[in-house]
Amino acid sequence: MPLPRAVRDVVQTAAGRRHRADPVTPVTGGPGGNAQLTAWTGLLFLGLIAAELVTLLDVSGWMSWHVVLGVLLVPVALLKTGSTGWRIARYYTGNRPYRAAGPPPMILRVLGPLVILSTLGVLGSGLALIAVGQGTSERTWLTVLGQQVSAVTLHQVLFIAFGVLTGLHLLARIVPAIQLTTGRTHDEAGTGAPGKGPRALILVMTLAAAAVAAALILPTAHGWQQGAHHAERGRQSGHAGR
Fold it and tell me: Which stretches of 67-195 are assigned E, i.e. beta strand?
């Protein structure tokens, strides 16, 4: 039984067999340059996410790293959202090169906004936890089916949604992104769109902003680290007293 066209398009895209023909324009590179920037930003975001996932192996012990990496992710996520949003805006406002490039497969058009919302949700809730402090973040709002719900719980639920949606997005986009950034595609974007310097500068400035934000938040991260250690010692004392 043949696959529906919408599914077939995504499978071919994920396997790197189907590419949008991104026209290249002078100076900035147009859709081709935008595709390059989005691909590089996506791979950078993936690397930081991988590091963030490692901290989940021992959140109590690596809480400072978890917080700092979460802050580092914010500017990169905003750049990825901005580059994708720019492409969407140019397409729907009738820009000729972007209209010629066409939209992504239908399933990815539906998945894309959900990925953006879940990403902003998990990072935004993480920043909120830092802002209000550990005590307020862990304060119970209500109890549902015996489960205490707090701001931390909300962050965890958003992270699960983010993980599922981003995982699906990754399956569809990782191979094309690698092909694009390594020049293994046969379209104009893969052969080197103009504007490499500005795109590299944007990435460097984004990383610099992320580093500054992480440095500013580091004292708060240490506070969460100490709180996590106190909570762990409290749980161990409670178990020992039983």
Answer: 142-144, 147-149
In the block, which residue shows the tokens 């209000």? Answer: 132
pLDDT attached to residue 4? 86
Is residue 183 a contact partner of residue 18, using CB atoms and an 8 Å limit? no
Judge whether 209 and 75 are in contact, CB under 8 Å.
Answer: yes
Q: Between helices 196-240 and 106-132, what is the axis angle to 10°?
A: 60
pLDDT of 238 reads: 47
| Distance between first and last Cα of the chain | 61
Residues of the chain with pLDDT under 50: 229-230, 234-240
Instruction: Break the chain into its structural domains and give their ranges.
Output: 7-199
Matching residue, tokens 């007293």:
241
pLDDT at 234: 47
Q: What is the DSSP string of 109-145?
A: HHHHHHHHHHHHHHHHHHHHHHHH-HHHHTS--EEET
**pLDDT at residue 226, as a whole number:** 56
